[in-house]
């Protein structure tokens, strides 16, 4: 019997290729491979990845402002329920014509995997940084959703020269004991693993219910197919959740050099907008908060038009302020 969730993936891949993106797998170190959707100018005619140091790539990097290489680079980092292309399927289309778009699969999602025992978001961030370096990306704007937002914060903290700006939705700088405990108690979940790694129809329906503002009905066949496809590598992902938790005493808010946009669903039940307001105060004057009405945790799926519109405005602002600085 056909799995409807699995069946949509070839269609989605075809749409992404039509938009000018190509899937690339890179061995970052022995035992660690990252899969990234990247602009097609990184791929040769035979499907091989073109290194930015190779002569063929150097020829392309002539001073031509209209060339793909001259566009700003944007990195989209997915959350915990799905890999990159599935997470951003309603968003990449409006960005790909103006920006060089990079959509990585984090470790143990999609086709990315590692033999390393490190399960921290710091390690995920280093893998993203390593993949971008291999692709010749020296500067980029990063968008992170939920778990991907935590990875994005780590990436910005560790690589300020790489990350120009951040746009984060439904996430926190660090998942402390206190935040985790309060969130689980409020949602009536025993643990983050119970909430985010369901293995039953009831559990998946509960996750979808708290993730969205609108109450949506799907046939049980949909949930069964989703469970079979999206919640793979269960052992490793459980370990990723354990690797997120930071003790309250160790948690510190870094001083970020980047401009940060907190783009939030006003009805987010997992990380509510009050948490976002407190985070904005902690992050200082370079941090901005924008709430999207009638949207929950999955705001980029529930209200993609509103989400994409604000994302484009944010990038326009970031680019205009950098142009102004350079002009001075």
From TrEMBL:
It comes from the Eukaryota. GO terms for molecular function: hydrolase activity. Coiled coil: none annotated. InterPro entries: AB_hydrolase_1 (IPR000073), AB_hydrolase_fold (IPR029058), Meta-cleavage_hydrolase (IPR052370). The keyword Hydrolase applies. Residues 44-70 are annotated as: Disordered. Pfam families: Abhydrolase_1. Residues 72-304 form the AB hydrolase-1 domain. This is Alpha/beta-Hydrolases superfamily protein. It comes from Zea mays. The gene is LOC100279953.
């Amino acid at each position: 019997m056909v799995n409807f969730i699995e069946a949509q993936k070839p269609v989605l891949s075809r749409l992404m290729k039509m938009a000018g993106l190509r899937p690339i797998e890179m061995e970052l170190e022995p035992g660690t491979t990252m899969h990234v959707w990247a602009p097609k100018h990184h791929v040769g005619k035979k499907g091989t990845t073109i290194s930015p140091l190779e002569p063929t790539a150097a020829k392309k990097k002539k001073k031509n402002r209209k060339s793909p290489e001259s566009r700003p680079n944007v990195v989209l980092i997915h959350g915990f329920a799905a890999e990159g292309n599935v997470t951003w399927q309603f968003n990449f289309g409006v960005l790909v014509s103006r920006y060089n778009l990079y959509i990585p699969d984090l470790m143990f999602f999609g086709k990315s995997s590692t033999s390393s025992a490190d399960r921290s978001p710091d390690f995920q961030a280093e893998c993203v940084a390593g993949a971008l370096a291999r692709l010749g990306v020296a500067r980029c704007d990063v968008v992170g959703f939920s778990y991907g937002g935590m990875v994005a914060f780590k990436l910005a903290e560790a690589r300020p020269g790489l990350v120009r700006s951040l746009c984060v939705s439904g996430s926190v700088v660090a998942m402390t004991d206190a935040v985790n405990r309060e969130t689980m108690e409020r949602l009536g979940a025993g643990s983050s693993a119970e909430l985010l790694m369901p293995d039953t129809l009831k559990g998946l329906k509960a996750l979808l219910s708290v993730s969205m503002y609108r109450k949506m009905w799907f046939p049980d066949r949909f949930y069964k197919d989703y469970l079979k496809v999206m919640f793979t590598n269960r052992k490793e992902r459980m370990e990723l959740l354990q690797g997120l938790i930071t003790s309250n005493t160790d948690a510190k808010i870094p001083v970020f050099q980047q401009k940060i946009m907190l783009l939030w669903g006003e009805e987010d039940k997992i990380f509510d907008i009050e948490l976002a307001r407190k985070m904005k105060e902690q992050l200082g004057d370079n941090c901005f908060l924008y709430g999207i009405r009638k949207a929950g945790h999955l705001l980029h799926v529930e209200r993609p038009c509103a989400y994409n519109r604000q994302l484009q405005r944010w990038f326009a602002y970031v680019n205009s302020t950098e142009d102004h600085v350079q002009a001075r």
